[in-house]
Design a protein that fits this description.
Mean pLDDT: 81
Order of helices and strands: HHHHHHHHHHHHHHHHH
Shape: globular
Number of domains: 1
């Protein structure tokens, strides 16, 4: 009976969350977190931690990382110019240095070194849907977001290994395995690139244009599960496998222009909402009124925005003051990845319950508050061009 209640509750929440998002103008992921929290408070998800909901949420999170990987086309990534790459490196070096300094000076958990500078493309894509791709600060945010998401995935993998194995020889073995996997993945990508160059018809054999049997979706999902299984076998963070699977699809099957939309519709229409609803079920609503949790959440938001605005100064000459601020703000909403880090840290004992709640609350404040702030700045200042043409390539 409990499983039936969970299934019905999940179905209702997934169905009503987009409607509530449109009415309230709040990002749908935040709505799903809040609905999950309310449902848990009402006892609709039961009390078992090993029930149906956690399992579906894990699959939903991995599928979210798979979709994130599909935003990274390695062919486009390799075309990034030297100037842009140098400034991107400077941007992330400054961010991680500031995060390292803040963590050490305040004697915080090492998880903050990974959490404060983490980057996610999810909300950046939402901004692009809102304002279009013609804004120079958004174009740059998308490019930097791709690089940042790769770095963030690496940070998540290292963090997960640290939580699971500590800093001993086992951790060193896992890092060596990770390095070996990355080298093998690079060699595989290069090999597939050569193979498809010599035999381009293979692409359409694997994913034909005549797709009445949805072979493209079947191949994509199969690759997703195979790489997740490979990560489990190697003892690596399964997030990495899901992300690499998405990168592979995006990089080599660009002739299937409708595939990303088909996979996204399934993910954001079913699996991904389950993950956010589950996160909400672990978040207790009383934390919204707990001054300690609220103050920690606000501190995190301020710290994450501040280190990005400081780091964004490397682009001031190209973007101008207004667009530099918008770029820094647009990069300050790593909703899904911040929730992911909170989940890993709390499960591994690196975060207490209050800190975990603060992480979740901070992710929601960022998603709502910064979107509103960007809208205010955009409305008051209107469209503007950088001080000089944005030619970083």
């Amino acid at each position: 009976m409990e499983a039936i209640i969970v299934i019905v509750t999940m179905s209702v929440l997934i169905m009503v969350s987009p409607f509530l998002s449109r009415v309230t103008k709040i990002p749908v992921a935040v709505v799903e977190i809040l609905l999950g929290s309310v449902a848990a408070m009402l006892g609709l998800f039961g009390s078992a931690e090993d029930g149906l909901l956690p399992l579906l949420a894990k699959v939903g999170f991995l599928y979210l990382m798979f979709l994130a990987g599909m935003e990274v086309n390695l062919r486009e990534f390799t075309r990034i110019g030297n100037t842009l790459m140098r400034r991107a490196i400077a941007y992330f070096v400054i961010m991680y240095s500031l995060a390292f300094f803040i963590t050490l000076s305040l004697d915080l958990s090492p998880i903050y070194i990974a959490a404060l500078p983490i980057v996610s493309l999810g909300m950046i894509m939402a901004l692009i849907n809102e304002y279009g791709r013609n804004e120079p600060w958004l174009n740059l945010a998308l490019t930097i977001g791709i690089i940042g998401e790769l770095i963030s995935i690496a940070a998540l993998t290292i963090l997960s290994g640290t939580v699971q194995y500590g800093w001993g020889w086992e951790f060193a073995r896992i890092m060596a395995t990770l390095l070996g996997f990355l080298i093998a993945a690079i060699a595989f990508f290069k090999g597939v690139k050569v193979l498809f160059w010599w035999f381009p018809e293979l692409k359409k054999l694997i994913m034909p244009d005549d797709n009445r049997q949805d072979q493209d979706v079947r191949v994509s999902i199969a690759l997703f599960f195979v790489l997740v299984a490979a990560m489990l076998y190697l003892g690596l963070e399964v997030v990495l496998g899901a992300f690499v699977a998405g990168m592979f699809i995006a990089s080599f099957f660009e002739h299937k222009a409708d595939l990303p939309e088909k996979l996204s519709s399934f993910g954001f229409g079913f699996l991904v909402p389950i993950f956010f609803i589950y996160v909400g079920s672990t978040f207790e609503l009383w934390a919204l009124f707990d001054t300690q949790v609220l103050s920690m959440a606000l501190w995190m938001v301020v710290a994450m925005v501040a280190i990005r605005l400081v780091s964004s100064l490397v682009y001031l000459r190209f973007l101008g003051a207004r667009n530099t601020v918008l770029f820094g703000l647009g990069d300050s909403m790593p909703l899904s990845f911040l929730v992911a880090i909170a989940t890993i840290g709390y499960g591994g004992g690196l975060l207490g319950q209050s800190e975990y709640f603060a992480f979740i609350l901070a992710s929601m404040i960022q998603a709502v508050g910064i979107m509103i702030l960007i809208q205010i700045i955009y409305t008051l200042t209107g469209k503007s061009r950088p001080n000089r043409p944005l030619r970083l390539n």
